[in-house]
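tool_call predict_complex ligand=heme C
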Amino acid sequence: MGLISHWGDLPQHLPPGSTEKDLQFRYNDVDASSPLLFSVFPDRTMNHHFSALTVIIAALAIAGCSKEVPQGPHPFEPNLVHAYKYHVSQGLPMDQVLSDADWTVDSLLGDANEMRLNEELAASEEDLATVVDFEQLKIGQQLYIDKQCYSCHGYTGDGRGQNAGLSNPYPRDFRKGMFKFKETELNSKPTREDLAERIRNGIPGTTMVKLPAVTDEEVQALVDYVIYLSWRGELERALIDDAVLELDIEGGDRLINPSHQNSTDEEEKELFDESWDIALEYAADIGFAWLEAEDDIVEVELPTDIPVPSSGTEFLAMMQGEDAAALTASVKRGQEVFRGKIASCSKCHGNDGKGDGQTADYDAWTKDYTLAIDIKPENRDALIPLLARGALQPQNILPRNFAEGVFRGGSDPEDLYRRITVGIGGTPMPAVTFVPGEFEEPDVWHLINYVRSLGAEVAAKNEKAAAEQAVAEEEQSPESEEEK
Ligand code: HEC
Ligand code: HEC
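tool_result ok
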């Protein structure tokens, strides 16, 4: 079981101005017999009154000393933040719950050394064995290291690798099972192709860049691994939530008691089986949601009566051609809708689409450990116990500034149509609501033309540079050498 946390990089996540006391809190504030603390600091006899410097040196030593690192893949870490937030908000003792949840996840989906699907799940009618290619996971796990994914997304997919703190937005925490840029309905999982597209080409305008020289097989193996991490993480969260909602944790209820698995006591065995069945159902539901994604694709049909350019370059060209008048009229209509009361895009994106409207909101990943437990994200003092357990410092989510000419989820008209009609999962960006006679479906195309117009020149420059880069890479690739 992976109750190991690499606290080596924690100090950077504490708020600026954190004091020695904040660092020491970790010893004083947590029950010294806690298995969480124990796993983090194997030496339980550690003096409670170490200086902060000693703590940092010790932490760096744990992180940096290769002798201490166990052989084999980095173990999956428990979701300390998700468990401990219920301690912070409700005073619940969460150590046992977290440990039981992780035993269950390991039993159902394997651990970092042996990633496998539990037999009962594999035998299910829903083809859960096809959610990911378990045979390929080892390859995906290695690529996740080789291609540096772990440096941002963390070994466990918790979104807090060593480079995470420098990124805005933060790298995705896969464990929430929620993704932003996809061709499916808002609450559906992304398709494999959605993930493959992001992994292959990066997410423009963020720290996640295009992967140089990557094969389709490698991308598919990475897709499998991301889904696997997400499945594990979402299951762990579901089990923890279930315990908080359904059990009397303080009264000693267990999420599951592994030692009763083969108990001869009928009552104990029955209780175990009941818990086990619930866990199986959660795991199956999550796996099934991934299988269903393909059925939830939002189909898009381009209009025949509105010109819709598909890039900045094309936009500028069309403005010089025979569609110029129609496109100009479309942009004008788009601006009107954008600023209008009903669509109210300008409320967040600002009157001129510069992203300067509502800039004080947070994304769902941040709200999860702040507003969801009635802590204001600005209240850094109240957050310290969670920051110390791996929560990232809240950063505001900014509406897109269209003048930058960058669309993160793809710049094809179809991509933008889905972003606008479906919304963007985990962010304040809502789905549209049409009002007959005022804001109707064709207006979405006008909106797309309007937002593209705002950054068309910058986009056209970027497109030209990207095309030149592609040609240069083509010339340098070994394959084209052979051709010569
Ligand atoms: C330099 C940091 C960095 C690296 C390296 C990186 N990512 Fe990301 N990744 C991000 C950021 C930041 C986001 C979130 C972007 C956003 O929210 O707009 C992200 C988002 C994602 C998403 C979610 C997309 C969505 O629609 O929600 C996936 C999947 C992903 N990354 C996979 C990978 C994989 C696989 C690798 C390795 C090949 C990788 N990333 C490498 C920073 C990184
Ligand atoms: C409540 C605030 C809010 C409203 C209202 C809103 N947006 Fe957004 N929008 C956002 C935020 C926040 C993002 C950035 C999400 C992210 O990528 O993390 C965004 C992103 C976008 C993107 C970028 C997609 C990409 O791939 O980069 C487009 C296009 C967009 N919005 C269009 C619109 C349009 C058109 C409207 C009106 C119909 C609208 N938005 C209304 C908050 C809003």
